[in-house]
Write a structure and sequence with these properties.
With about 325 residues, the protein is an alpha/beta fold. Helices cover about 35% and strands about 20% of the residues.
């Protein structure tokens, strides 16, 4: 559950040799019009490539697309991939990592729920010589070999600047539907608010949907009830954006600016309710993470940070994404 342009593309075929545990497949084949295979994926290395991936949940399209990318890259590189669903439970995520260590994986992908709470489990894995790549949620510097994803603070500032440039900040009132239990969504919110507040926008309040679509829809409704006639609602992730779009459908006063496309969010853009959506490329993040682990296991040096750029999607450039979210 994303701000200006990106992407290239060649397809990756998924081989039957990939093992995916506790993972339901996504409903689409890509998070962007195409996904590119990372250079790291071709790295040589005779060491066994057995990867454990701990995922936040299997309900958000963002995460299922990330799994699709990782699965495809594992097939292309000859790695074995097992995916564990933490189901939004940080304690279970730590337990999943411990289980992967016990199983003897050589690589670990962490999509962290709690970027601080997961550190002891990550350290235990690295102490065993396991290579670790974090996706999406950046952990403390030096805690993993490589981080793959978006600079969330920078992207939050970028979408804030879009709001400013389009005359939606100065003299306008806004509220936020966020997920206070998500470190990266807090980063997105803080950077956005800093940008638009400095440009003359008036912040009213934030409500948390806890990264759950139904809760986010209720939170959005509570927000517009408590703060009538808002000019703008900023949403910090897919559940918040989908929930706000459902709750504000038919609202002719308030616009939504937020993160992460889905079929429902594209319909929201078409209706004019959603003005701009930050779109990440989660499938490519999965591809890059597996490629980096394959290279690390083969003896290559860590890239430390692999930036997967974002796109700000509006009515003007939404069409290529319709095939992605049919």
């Amino acid at each position: 559950m994303t701000f200006p342009a990106r992407r290239r593309g060649i397809g990756i075929l998924v081989a039957a040799s990939v093992i995916v545990a506790a993972c339901s497949g996504g409903t689409s084949s890509s998070a962007a019009p195409s996904a590119a295979a990372p250079a790291a994926a071709s790295a040589a290395g005779g060491a066994a490539c057995t990867i454990g991936m701990t995922q936040i949940n299997q309900t958000a399209v963002f995460f299922t697309q990330m799994n699709e990318g990782a699965t495809a890259a594992a097939a292309a590189t000859g790695c074995t991939l097992n995916i564990a669903n933490a189901n939004n439970d940080s304690a279970k995520q730590n337990s999943d990592i411990e289980n992967f260590v016990s199983q003897g994986v050589t690589g670990l992908i962490v999509v962290a729920i709690d970027v601080n709470g997961v550190l002891p489990a990550i350290k235990a894995a690295r102490d065993k010589g396991i290579k670790v790549v974090a996706i999406d949620a950046k952990t403390a510097d030096g805690s993993v070999d490589t981080f793959v994803g978006v600079d969330n603070a920078k992207a939050g500032q970028q979408i804030g600047q879009w709001v400013i440039d389009n005359g939606m900040a100065k003299g306008k009132k806004y509220g936020v539907v966020d997920a206070r239990n998500s470190f990266i969504q807090n980063q997105r919110e803080d950077a956005f608010r800093k940008a638009v507040d400095a440009a003359g926008a008036t912040y009213t309040q934030s409500v948390s949907g806890d990264n759950v679509q139904e809760k986010a829809a209720t939170a959005a409704q509570n927000l517009v009830t408590a703060q009538p006639n808002l000019d703008l609602v900023y949403t910090t992730g897919e559940p918040a954006t989908v929930g706000a779009a459902a709750s504000l459908k038919g609202n002719s006063v308030t616009k939504i600016v937020g993160w992460d496309l889905t079929k429902e969010v594209i319909a929201c853009i078409d209706s004019g309710l959603c003005a701009a959506i930050v779109q990440q490329n989660p499938k490519q993040e999965g591809v890059e993470a597996v490629g980096e682990l394959k290279a690390l296991i083969g003896g290559s040096s860590a890239k430390v940070f692999i930036d997967v750029p974002i796109t700000i999607v509006t009515k003007a450039n939404v069409d290529p994404y319709r095939a992605v979210f049919p």
